[in-house]
Predict the 3D structure of the following.
Amino acid sequence: MSMRAPATDLPIVLDEVSFASGGVTILDRVSLAFAAGAPAVLIGPNGAGKTTLLRLLMGLVAPVRGRVTWGGREDAEPTHRAIMFQRPAMLRRSTAGNIRYALAAAGVPRAKRASRVDELAAIVGLAGLGGRPARKLSGGEQQRLALARALAKDPQILLLDEPTASLDPAATKAIEDVVRAVAARGIKVVMSTHDLGEAKRLAGEIVFMHRGRVIESGAADTFFADPRTEEARRFMRGELLV
């Protein structure tokens, strides 16, 4: 009897992928591969295509040209992937209730949900806040609750769209600590950020985008020490805004 390896969505490979909406090209012939390892961070000006790229990686939209494969498969169900958007909605229930809802949606057996609620709350630093209404949490706490809900499906890949946008430094650090903890558990994190300092702190690899194209990608240390392109150098000086 042959032993089959468990299905994995890694690597995610984009091959000459383009995406357009309303006649506007949002991604233009993007070729990338995301493999297991340290977080990959997408950077670039507003409108560069970062959010659309994350939606493609999740499988929420399909390319108009090119192809995306997950673990070598083109039609992989997103059971191993989770995404957190920039402004996640809070359900009108408690913190624990939000996590329980996500666990139920992920198909976790009812008998296992209580212990998983406590475990996920602890991972994101919300232990002790289970009874608090989710909508009464601070902005940073709501972002961490959204992270817990994304982790409820026990993903191999976690996609984060500017998870610290408009948070204060303390709340930002709390989110970054969760990202590090998640990555240390072997979950592949792909996230976008407008904060170069955050990219330097978290990234193992950088994808720099501008006007729907990947301008540079590679090891974060190399990128920040010696960017190859003039666009990247200008962006890091704060000059490349559109």
Q: What stands out?
A: The domain at 12-89+154-236 is CATH 3.40.50.300 (Rossmann fold).
